[in-house]
Amino acid sequence: MKNLATTYQHIADILSYDSDTSTLESTLSQPAFNWDVIVKEGSKHLVLPAIFCRLQSKQLLHVLPADLLSYLENITELNRNRNSSILNQMQSISDLLDQNHINHVFLKGAALLASHIFEDPAERMIGDIDILIDLNQLDETFELFIKEGYNPIEQTFGNKFSEHKHLPRLTTEKYICAVELHRKLFVNHKDVALENANILKTKTNINQFYIPNEQHLLRHNILNYQINDKGQLYNSLNFRSSFDTITLLKKRTLHLNFEENNTIKNYFRVLSIFFKEIRPNTTIKYNIKSSFYLFKLKNLKFYRFWNALLRITNYLLSITNRIPLFLYNKAYRKEFLADRKRIYQHFVTILKGS
Predict the structure, then answer these.
(1) Where residue 283 falls among pLDDT bands split at 50, 70, 90?
(2) Is 339 within a domain?
(3) 283 or 321, greater pLDDT
(4) Nearest Cα to 41, choosing from 4, 66, 71, 16?
């Protein structure tokens, strides 16, 4: 795989609602077409079920090699069953929170699944169930989940000295998904539109699930990737986030100022490289960042080097910010030294990029 840009364009054309089906069929039907890299990158970006469903919607499943068709069918069916179980778990959670008058909204993948924006619920792969809780009810809600048989995972010592955006992940043997109760959407980033009060005040009820309104869903999807998943730092694209965005824009009448701020602008600048539906809706043009991103995708050795440099630099910066805490907080220093083996292994993992 020498040119990741070409692979990305193929994946985007499969996921896109505006790509030309006949041209795509011709491309995918070529004997030399490399499906292995599509599977590799699609798996990495958590969009293999979406790729299968979009090919099915475009009536292009016949272009898939027989073994790959069977593989994708199986993965998609497994994800469909998983999402059905997640919806059942969400219903149980919704009932629990409503019965106890907890002001809440489901976030991210769970909210998108509940909103029925996808043609097939199997399209979206979901990790955890994320829920934003009114700050005044956060501790009460945590205790409710404990009583319901959920257990918090063990936390590293750093959580005692810095505030995370959510409480410890909660798991249970009764249901398939872990749950994260959010106190906020970002650790440090400030976005007025996505303040807790705004989201909770304007929430919508779809099929007995409280979720953010559609504008907030779209905005959070963009900024969650750019800020929490470091898309802004790496100036990169993630196809699961991209597919969520183009689906929201396609299935709902949403209006977003593409040039409202640099973070949102950069997100759409990257999407517009690969997705045709973005280009007519924005005056954003290619710039040096767009060109540099394409250069990285076409030169994978440099891409890996550059991303490793960014990853290590960002990690070292975070360590630097904790030096005063280490020097002046005895309790932090004591727990740091007691946990030094795990910290060292984490540092090695960061260096290796695994």
Answers:
(1) low
(2) yes
(3) 321
(4) 4
pLDDT higher than threshold 90 for residue 340: no
Buried b (16+ CB within 10 A) or exposed e, 5-18: bebbbbbbbbbbbe
Residue 193 and residue 326 in one domain: no
Kindly give, in sequence order, each residue whose CB lies less than 8 Å from that of residue 207, ignoring residues fewer than 6 positions away: 114, 116
Hey, what are 250's tokens? 């396609």
Angle formed by the axes of helices 239-251 and 262-274, to 10°? Answer: 90
Q: What angle do CA 205, 211, 224 make, to 5 degrees?
A: 165
Specify if 347 maps to a domain: yes
Secondary structure (3-state) at 232: helix
For residue 86, give the CATH number of its domain. 3.30.460.40
For 28-75, the pLDDT digits (tens) are 999 999 999 999 999 999 999 999 999 999 999 999 999 999 999 999
Task: State whether 283 and 312 are in the same domain.
Answer: no
* Side chain identity, residue 167: L
Q: Which residues neighbour 233 within 8 Å (Cβ) at sequence distance 6 or greater?
A: 310, 314
Q: For tokens 């539109």, name the residue.
A: 193
Reply yes or no on whether the pLDDT at 177 is more than 90: yes
Domain holding 112, by residue range, is 4-289
List, as own/partner pairs, every contact residues 146-153 make where C-beta atoms lie below 8 angstroms and the sequence separation is at least 24, other chains included: 146/170, 148/96, 148/172, 149/173, 149/174, 150/179, 153/178
- Determine the Cα–Cα distance for residues 105 and 151; give it in Å rounded to an integer: 21
First-to-last C-alpha distance (Å) of the chain: 20
Contact residues for 352 (Cβ-Cβ < 8 A; gap 6+) = none
Quick one: 271 and 248 in the same domain? yes
Q: Which amino acid is at 59?
A: Q
**Residue 63 counted as domain residue:** yes
Q: What's the pLDDT score for residue 100?
A: 96
Beta bridge partners of 106: 131
Report d(CA 218, CA 132) in Å as an integer.
16
How many distinct structural domains can be found in the chain?
Answer: 2
